[in-house]
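Collaborator request, handled under Task 6.
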Amino acid sequence: MQYLDGIRLKRAIRAGYLWLNKNRELLNAINVFPVADGDTGTNMALTLQAAVAGAYSSKTDSLRDVADSIALHSLRGARGNSGVILSQYFKGIAEFIGKKERLRIPDIAGVFSAGADSAYRAMSEPREGTILTVLREIGEHLQQAREKFMNVHTLLESAMERGRISLSETRVKLKVLADAGVVDAGAQGFMHFIEGIHNFIKTGELTKEIDVKTDIQELPRLIEKHSRFRYCSEFLVRGSDFDTSGLKNRLKNLGDSLIVASTGKGEIEYLRIHIHTDAPRKIKDLAQSLGAIENEKIDDMKSQNRLMQRWRAGIKRNVTKTVRIVTDSTCDLPKEIADFYDIEIVPLNIIFGADSYKDGMDLDRKDFYKLLSESEDFPKTSQPSPEDFSGAYKKVFGRGDAETIISLHISANLSGTYNSALKASEEFDGKITLLDSGTVSLGLGMMAIIAAEMARDGNSLERITGKLAEMKKSQKLFFTLESVDYLIKGGRVGKARGFLGKILGLKPILTLVNGEVQPLSKARNRERIIEKILSLLPRDLSDGRLAVAHAADPSKVDLVMDALKGRYDLNKILTGEIGPTVGAHCGPGTWGLFFMKG
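Structure tokens returned to the collaborator:
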């Protein structure tokens, strides 16, 4: 092969994505910089997935249109530090290509350098010993040797040889990597990307297994939080005439790992801000002042770090995942946990008057409870459409690592969500297994996590569904309300209607049986409620899993956790905030305790 054109570039990008995606869990496992939040592989895979979507949706098959579409879509779909760097790498490539119709051998060498230069420019404080160094050193090497290469195949072989040397040196160039005994996860991910392209160029096949000398690393010896800030905050803004240099100066004192990237000058531009900060609300306010926020992501890196430490303790490597998990937004899983476990969440709809929102997408928890307190309209909820589920299933299968899907959902007695998923599953020839969890909120969330853990460890579909059936039988939910109004207005009262009308100022203790709300007891104050609920748990909790959820009142979680000290390992308790769909029916101040065996 002597050149690349638009069609070949499309296929090359897809081949690189497919191979990186096969290795993304290993990349997550070795991720310690800039923080050990265990999502580098996922972020790079999702960014490249967006790049592939861009490549195959370009206006024409011309090299210029394909490259421009890759740059635009990768920026819009970029995730995390490594993902934004990749998007800017593609931006530099698109700018280098310009009006070229083909990339000859010297041009391809120039592509690597142009991409690296663009990635460096986007960073507020570039760090050597990371993916940036590997990008730069590969580019410099290819530029120096560009006249020696006979074809694209030999050029890529030389790029990989130099890249492996540069990758191995990241282990000593950056202290945090040296302490952990690993290479930079982003740099390793880029090498997987190039390996996938090389194999495609060599064989002409997109799906052939790759036989390369990949440097499989040991898991980190030391896992620490390397950012002094808590939240990884990202905002995609649609507008025009962005001043990226000025924005960097305005943001540099609000956090670290700052990247400000745009698609370039034009009537309509896209800007992505990535920063680790303790003030995500300030960043959001600034982003809103620049244009319309199209997408946002705020991850709690401390929580992600705790999850990574637990996962790494028992990780099984090099297992091909064949079962993937899809659930719905009533699971109330924090986004960082769903991303970490590769759980696809289909949002339900929240309706205030004439305005409709997607749970967790158009409306986050904080904004929902604010709207709930201010709006004159009582919120309504509706299940996703079969088309919503069909789109989610196609997205999961499109990643190339799933043979079958377990679609696990809120009790069918509480919502029509299960029936929508069932309707959508009919077009997938038996590849979707539907399960009614019989529960909601973090009860559903725990079941999704367990299913994802088992899938990650290589368990069969039958073994996973059998485990979930056992858990459904043992599950218990106890919850209490600050106000009964929301439950009554939402029509989910069940057999508790008469009971709620007679409690006369006392707080109710309720449960869920076969998807129906039923009364258990009542108490006068918070302490008595906690004492009563804990007395309803099995005496021996050693073989169980616990979760505590709250609605806009995290102090309730702290009180429950304190009461469980000495009886259960608090590090194993899943905690989270009740989201908009469930919150619309229970109201602020609600909290619940979930238990199930396994």
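The cover message to the collaborator said: "The domain at 476-597 is CATH 3.30.1180.10 (Hypothetical Protein Tm841; Chain: A;domain 3). Confidence is low (pLDDT under 50) at residues 208-225, 315-319. Please let us know whether this matches your experimental observations."
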